């Protein structure tokens, strides 16, 4: 089959190509396309029948014509060649080198789509990762094998935050670092450059594999890029025993590419024109994070996505939030108050935090302190809201205290330097310094022993 | 033999004369299994439970002659199955950590030996009716499995195996069917999942399903055999609510269906349940629990099937005379699977891409809940509790709004509450239940006659406080009278001392009905006597400064279910203090008059 080259393109629209009279082509098979100038493109079969085969072309169909396009069906899915030499390299979405070095040669090749992990084979993620960032470690702790996205917006410092996490993430007391898989879709040249520079200057470049599709690269390639990147990650984690940190940016560009093909195919849209299967499609990507019972390595995933018009109910953040194990949400308001990192605490969440913190992992008071900070801060935001209506002079004594608490919380707990690394004990002590602005009677989520041990209330001020 | 004509994602068009709608088919060289869902002239459309990647037109197809069925017999408990009832640990033995395609594995272990105890009434010569109990085996240490005759067979018993050790494939009963032929019965039988299992008649249930969660049991109770929904945006706590129910509900059997959700959530159950003890039997929780898992990365069509596979197994334990709870997380993913298939079939979408039959499918599913008189002559129930994941947290979307029409208990989760880490984030304003009056009968007989009254008082206090908060947000707290400020104070206490319940707190994770009532009663008595003092002229600030509030808020996690006496001690402390104030203030006012 792979020997045969067809010239039977019957129509082309958008990124799709229809071929008639080609028999027995498998769904998902890889397709090699040659145009009249002999240039090659890559495609994939997305529907197949006796009469028509539908091919999606990753490089787009610009300047293809019906007469002079040759198509070869390779009778195999998209695969990535795997070897330890992946580390330190830079590829495009389908795993071709972008760094002027030779392609990876290996007899070990894997279908980039992977296959679903058996839930019975998973191990529950529970090892606390210290990122050195208080809003994450203290309030939304990350654990090994978790998928924890950053919900951001245009112009917000999500890249800086991701780079800081990459630089600082480690298990407390453990020096061995993560291996990084960096997957970029539709990002600007300067953003890609920023990350490369970061990896270089922190000396981890040898432990990074990059898969990059820039804003001016073919958008359809974004559909396969995260799958290629995760195939590399799985190999590094489960066969080479590395702890892998996967940073994927920007999932919004991925979802937009998906919507584009879905519309061209005529799929029934659900919300905002995105196809109904966006949820399952995103899940195929996100669920590749995790730990397996009998493997040493792990895949921790930090997808970054920008929320269109800062709207967290937009289908992309919404469906992501339904799949991932929490989210770190960035706030434009804090950013404009020049608070870095501008983590919007109330809507942020880490679902796997509960088993990774506490007595044996961080400190015994940690779960209660986190819960108390959340409660007090939301209470304080209510007070701030009230003050904006009736004026802060009208506030009760108690509410004025809360106002002060909110300000300090943002300026000393949330805010920290882009290079500032706070260990978890420092973060928790800082939390208690803030809670000491409030009277013990306002702190019902911590225990009496906690108050005794960590709270310093002088009853005045 | 037929052949594949077209492959369009999970929908495969085949040509095979004589194939029937609903029939199972085996497709292609990879032996993929699917189900005919539509006949169109010469062709049949098949939804395939596994990925169709690399399937070619022209590959062969074989009709299996039966619809999707499940195996029902001993050995289901403690297991985790995929969406079409294949045990996931067997899959792992065969294909490793990743699920490969075309695996044929039966649900029940054929090798396992069970000690069978025949029912003394099922003797040779007697007529056997469908659904009768043939005998029993101990399925787990605490659950007796009542081996049932298939519901659709009856005849004269001509042989019944004696007590002894058998595998499920051995014949235990032979009977001469009414129309002559001999039928052999084993310890298990098959049942088609899309057909509700028959029962003798519906019964009415008056018993509340106790979950140990105060906001559920005391404020929005559901009954055994009832139907409930838990809608909420992502991260609001649907899964935790369902896990808490799976842990603590006073049911005999619990089935947890993970439908299109996270793999790690199932792992968590598999790892924690064996170590937890059932508060009613003192045995490991895993002995009464089993799971169906089609996680979000598993094929979408099996997600549609998983709900039916689950509810059929639930009905099977109901037919043995058990109270079964099935939680499904999330019914929205199931509805999306329907939508996806409908879209590929080119069916006309009516709302947000969903087909017109969404509402009727939802209703038919929830209709399988209920308390029944079984064919075997006893009582059993299936309670259904479905999570709903509305896009953008918008409850007006089709799945939530249709579900709301069908169910009788609605536990609405609120994002603002979850953001403030007020868990369970069940909104006291948006939630409802139709079962409160019937639940009240049980509560007044078993806990306190005051229950209904207390519940009402608490709900109205919360509603009143909500109104007052609106006023404060318009004009500030100064506009409120002293007694209104006391209402705000007390409603805050109800929220924090009663409604809030941390699932991770070892003491508070499960709260017994007695403790639920006493905590609420204590807070309401505090509110009432505080209100009287304010009537006598005690400034509200003075009451607040006494700081009983913070103590009340801690009681839930310091007082254990086993010893509730500290609650009375605390009440006494409050009373002594209040009495002293009362004396002081009535003397004052006495002097003034
Ligand atoms: N009763 C509770 N006690 C303590 N923590 C809770 C409780 N309910 C929810 N949480 C916290 O909220 C987090 C999210 O809850 P959960 O996973 O149940 O949300 P969900 O509604 O199922 O979200 P999704 O739709 O994305 O699956 C949990 O990981 C836990 O940290
Ligand atoms: Mg959930």
Structure description:
- Chain A is an alpha/beta fold.
- Chain A has three domains: 5-76, Thrombin, subunit H; 80-356, Rossmann fold (3-Layer(aba) Sandwich); 366-454, no CATH class.
- Chain A has helices at residues 134-137, 158-168, 189-201, 225-239, 251-265, 278-286, 315-323, 332-336, 353-356, 366-390, 397-414, 424-435, 448-454, and strands at 5-6, 9-13, 16-20, 30-34, 40-49, 52-57, 70-73, 79-81, 90-91, 109-111, 122-123, 128-129, 142-143, 150-152, 179-187, 208-214, 243-249, 290-292, 298-306, 326-329, 349-350.
- In chain A, the strands form four sheets. In chain A, strands 9, 11, 14, 15, 16, 17, 18, 19, 20 and 21 form a ten-stranded mixed β-sheet that branches.
- In chain A, helix 3 (189-201) links the parallel strand 15 (179-187) and strand 16.
- In chain A, helix 6 (278-286) packs across helix 7 and helix 10 (366-390) packs across helix 11.
- The longest helix of chain A has 25 residues, at 366-390.
- The mean pLDDT of chain A is 93.
- By secondary structure, chain B is α+β, with helices and mostly antiparallel strands.
- Chain B folds into four domains: 1-67, Elongation Factor Tu (Ef-tu), domain 3 (Beta Barrel); 114-187, Beta Barrel (OB fold (Dihydrolipoamide Acetyltransferase, E2P)), CATH 2.40.50.100; 201-435, Rossmann fold (3-Layer(aba) Sandwich); 451-592, Bovine Mitochondrial F1-atpase, Atp Synthase Beta Chain, Chain D, domain 3 (Bovine Mitochondrial F1-ATPase, ATP Synthase Beta Chain, Chain D, domain3).
- Chain B contains 16 helices and 28 strands.
- Chain B is globular and about 95 Å long.
- Chain B starts with a strand and ends with a helix.
- At the A-B interface, strand 5, strand 11, helix 6, helix 7 and helix 10 of A face strand 1, helix 1, helix 4, helix 6 and helix 11 of B.
- Magnesium ion binds next to helix 3 of chain B.
- Adenosine-5'-triphosphate sits between chains B (232, 234-240, 261, 389, 423-424, 501-504) and A (322, 349, 351, 354).
């Amino acid at each position: 089959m792979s020997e045969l080259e067809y010239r039977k393109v019957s129509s082309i629209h958008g990124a799709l190509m229809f071929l008639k009279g080609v028999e027995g082509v498998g769904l998902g098979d890889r397709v090699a396309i040659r145009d009249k100038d002999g240039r090659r493109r890559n495609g994939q079969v997305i529907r197949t029948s006796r009469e028509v085969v539908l091919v999606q072309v990753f490089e787009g169909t610009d300047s293809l014509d019906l007469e002079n396009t040759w198509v070869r069906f390779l009778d195999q899915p998209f695969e990535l060649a795997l070897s330890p030499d992946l580390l330190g390299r830079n590829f495009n979405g389908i795993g071709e080198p972008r760094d002027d070095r030779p392609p990876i040669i290996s007899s070990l090749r894997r279908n980039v789509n992977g296959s679903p992990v058996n839930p019975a084979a998973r191990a529950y993620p529970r090892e606390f990762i210290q990122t050195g960032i208080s809003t994450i470690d203290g309030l939304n702790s990350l654990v090994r094998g978790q998928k924890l996205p950053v919900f951001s917006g245009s112009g917000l410092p999500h890249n800086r935050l991701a780079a800081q996490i990459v630089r600082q993430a480690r298990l407390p007391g453990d020096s061995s670092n993560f291996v990084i898989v960096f997957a970029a879709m539709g990002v600007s040249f300067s953003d890609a450059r920023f990350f490369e520079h970061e990896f270089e200057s922190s000396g981890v470049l040898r432990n990074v594999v990059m898969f990059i599709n820039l804003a001016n690269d073919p958008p359809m390639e974004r559909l396969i890029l995260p799958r290629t990147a995760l195939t590399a990650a799985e190999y590094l984690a489960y066969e080479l025993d590395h702890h892998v940190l996967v940073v994927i940016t920007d999932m919004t560009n991925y979802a937009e590419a998906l919507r584009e093909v879905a519309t061209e195919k005529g799929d029934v849209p659900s919300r905002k024109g995105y196809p109904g299967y966006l949820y399952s499609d995103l899940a195929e990507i996100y669920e590749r994070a995790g730990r397996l019972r009998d493997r040493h390595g792990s895949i921790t995933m930090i997808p970054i996505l920008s929320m269109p018009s800062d709207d967290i109910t937009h289908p992309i953040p919404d469906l992501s939030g339904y799949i991932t194990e929490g989210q770190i949400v960035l706030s434009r308001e804090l950013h404009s108050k020049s608070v870095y990192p501008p983590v919007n605490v109330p809507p942020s969440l880490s679902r796997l935090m509960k088993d990774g913190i506490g007595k044996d992992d961080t400190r015994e008071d940690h779960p209660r302190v986190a819960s108390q900070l959340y409660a007090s801060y939301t209470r304080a935001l209510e007070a701030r809201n009230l003050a904006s209506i009736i004026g802060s002079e009208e506030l009760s004594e108690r509410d004025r205290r809360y106002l002060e608490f909110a300000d300090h919380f943002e300026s000393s707990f949330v805010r920290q330097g882009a290079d500032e690394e706070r260990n978890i004990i420092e973060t928790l002590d800082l939390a208690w310094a803030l809670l000491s602005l409030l009277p013990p009677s306002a702190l019902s989520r911590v225990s009496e022993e906690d108050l005794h041990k960590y709270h310093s209330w002088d009853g005045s001020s | 033999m037929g052949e594949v004509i077209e492959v369009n994602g999970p929908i495969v068009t085949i040509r095979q004369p004589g194939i029937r709608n609903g029939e199972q088919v085996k497709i292609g060289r990879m032996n993929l299994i699917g189900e005919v869902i539509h006949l169109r002239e010469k062709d049949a459309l098949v939804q395939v439970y596994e990925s169709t990647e690399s399937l070619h037109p022209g590959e062969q197809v074989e009709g299996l002659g039966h619809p999707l069925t499940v195996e029902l017999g001993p050995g289901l408990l403690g297991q985790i199955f995929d969406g079409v009832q294949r045990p996931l640990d067997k899959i792992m033995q065969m294909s490793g950590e990743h699920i490969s395609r075309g695996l044929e594995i039966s649900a029940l272990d054929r090798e396992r030996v069970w000690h069978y105890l025949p029912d003394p009434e099922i003797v040779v010569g007697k007529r056997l009716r469908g659904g009768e109990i043939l005998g029993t085996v101990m399925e787990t240490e605490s659950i007796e499995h009542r081996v049932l005759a298939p519901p659709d067979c009856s005849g004269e018993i001509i042989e019944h195996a004696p007590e002894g050790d058998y595998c499920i494939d051995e014949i235990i009963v032979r009977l001469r069917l009414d129309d002559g032929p001999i039928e052999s019965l084993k310890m298990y039988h098959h049942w088609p999942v899309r057909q509700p299992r028959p029962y003798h008649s519906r019964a009415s249930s008056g018993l509340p399903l106790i979950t140990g969660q105060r906001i559920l049991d005391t404020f929005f109770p559901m009954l055994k055999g009832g139907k409930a929904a838990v809608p909420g945006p992502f991260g609001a706590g649907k899964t935790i609510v369902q896990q808490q129910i799976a842990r603590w509900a006073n049911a005999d059997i619990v089935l947890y269906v993970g439908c299109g959700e996270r793999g790690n959530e199932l792992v968590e159950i598999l790892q924690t349940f064996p170590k937890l003890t059932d508060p009613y039997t003192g045995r490991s929780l895993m002995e009464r629990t089993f799971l169906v898992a089609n996680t979000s990365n598993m094929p979408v069509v099996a997600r549609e099937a998983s709900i039916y596979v689950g509810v059929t197994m639930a009905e099977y334990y109901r037919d043995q005379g058990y109270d079964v709870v099935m939680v499904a997380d999330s019914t929205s993913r199931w509805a999306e699977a329907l939508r996806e298939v409908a879209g590929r079939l080119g069916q006309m979408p009516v709302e947000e891409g969903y087909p017109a039959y969404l509402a009727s499918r939802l209703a038919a599913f929830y209709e399988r809940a209920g308390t029944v008189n079984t064919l075997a002559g006893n009582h059993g129930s299936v309670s259904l509790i479905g999570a709903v994941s509305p896009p953008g947290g918008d409850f007006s979307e089709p799945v939530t709004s249709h579900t709301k029409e069908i169910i009788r208990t609605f536990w609405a989760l609120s994002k603002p509450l979850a953001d403030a880490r007020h868990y369970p984030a069940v909104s006291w304003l948006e939630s409802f239940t139709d079962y409160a009056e019937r639940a009240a009968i049980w509560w007044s007989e078993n806990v306190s006659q005051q229950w209904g009254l207390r519940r009402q008082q608490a709900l109205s206090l919360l509603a009143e406080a909500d109104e007052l908060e609106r006023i404060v947000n318009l004009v500030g707290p100064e506009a409120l009278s002293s007694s209104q400020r006391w209402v705000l104070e007390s409603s805050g206490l109800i929220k924090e001392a009663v409604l809030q319940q941390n699932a991770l707190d070892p003491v508070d994770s499960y709260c017994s009905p007695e403790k639920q009532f006493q905590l609420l009663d204590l807070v309401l008595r505090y509110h009432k006597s505080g209100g009287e003092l304010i009537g006598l002229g005690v400034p509200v600030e003075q009451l607040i400064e006494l700081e009983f509030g913070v103590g009340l808020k801690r009681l839930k996690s310091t007082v254990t279910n086993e010893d509730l006496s500290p609650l009375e001690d605390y009440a006494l402390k409050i009373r002594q203090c209040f009495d002293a104030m009362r004396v002081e203030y009535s003397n004052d006012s006495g002097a003034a008059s």
